[in-house]
Write a structure and sequence with these properties.
Elements lengths: L1 H8 L3 H4 E5 L3 E6 L3 H11 L5 E7 L2 H8 L7 E4 L2 E2 L2 E2 H5 L7 E6 L5 H6 L4 E4 L4 H21 L13 E6 L2 E6 L3 E7 L2 E6 L5 E3 L3 H5 L7 E5 L2 E4 L3 E6 L4 E6 L6 E4 H10 L1
Parallel strand pairs: 2-3, 2-4, 4-7, 7-8
Antiparallel strand pairs: 1-9, 5-6, 9-10, 11-12, 11-15, 12-13, 14-15, 16-17, 17-18
Length: about 270
């Protein structure tokens, strides 16, 4: 454990760990191939924070569709289409809408980034590349909120999701599946139903401010519990009890004061 913490401190935590509340990403799909649109739709359905507002098969149809909605967060855009190029559509987009190209033609990539595309995905689309593009889109949307003075870290509800990025692993987790959080110095372990624990790069107080209370409650300096997960509190010694939580196998040791506080809360 000490070796892992030392390694974490030795690198830039921004790139290694992150905790992203997932506000809905509103997107539009534009591609002249029906099979490509359906395939992209299926892949996006894996991501619970993505809402597909609509699909279009040409630039004129896309312009009509865009006029029906508030500004989408992003368009997934093919380049070569029968009734106009995807590059033509960019000129008509609101600057706040990000562009993610999805195309079979690698040769257009330099021009795509000249027009400030957020990402450039090649067909056939790999799930991991789509996930990377969506993660980039989430970060851009969060940054825009900060610049606009809006809360980039909202107070979450049980039906919300969070994106946990740690050590090359990305989990999209419903808040209600977070069983407990344990402080480890300046870091925090997330104990998640049916998943290995995830070590995140900030202190427990940061996450406490974002999670819904109740059911989450801090019972000691180093422990926050999802009260809906409490199954039993069993005396283990004069000064300690064992806390059993649904969703994780190992019980958690509670000092006497923390156990008393938890009993008072439930």
């Amino acid at each position: 454990m000490k070796g892992l913490l030392s390694a974490l401190r030795a690198v830039d935590l921004f790139f290694l760990t992150d905790f992203i509340p997932l506000a809905m990403l509103r997107v539009i799909l534009i591609d002249d191939e029906p099979a490509a649109r359906r395939g992209l739709m299926r892949q996006l359905q894996v991501h619970p924070d993505v809402e597909v507002l609509g699909m279009a098969e040409s630039v004129p149809e896309a312009c009509e569709l865009l006029g029906q909605f508030a500004i989408p967060d992003a368009v997934f855009l093919d380049i070569e289409m029968p009734q106009g190029s995807g590059f033509e559509l960019i000129q008509r987009l609101n600057p706040a809408t990000q562009v993610i190209f999805v195309t079979a033609h690698a040769e257009h990539a330099p021009l795509a980034f000249e027009v400030a595309a957020l990402d450039y995905l090649l067909k056939p689309l790999r799930a991991e590349r789509l996930a990377q593009a969506l993660d980039r889109l989430r970060r851009v949307c969060q940054q825009k909120k900060r610049e606009a003075g809006l809360p980039a870290e909202p107070h979450l509800g049980l039906r919300d999701h969070v994106c946990l990025n740690a050590n090359g692993r990305t989990l999209i987790v419903p808040v209600e599946q977070i069983v407990a959080l344990q402080a480890e110095g300046d870091f925090t372990w997330f104990l998640i139903e049916g998943q290995p624990s995830v070590l995140m790069g900030y202190n427990l107080g940061r996450y406490e401010a974002m999670l819904p209370t109740p059911p989450f409650a801090r019972v000691s300096r180093s422990l926050m519990i999802n009260l809906k997960r409490v199954e039993s509190i069993t005396p283990h010694s004069r000064d300690e009890s064992l806390l059993k939580l649904s969703g994780i196998e190992e019980p958690i040791e509670l000092r006497r004061v923390a156990a008393a506080r938890l009993k008072g809360l439930i």
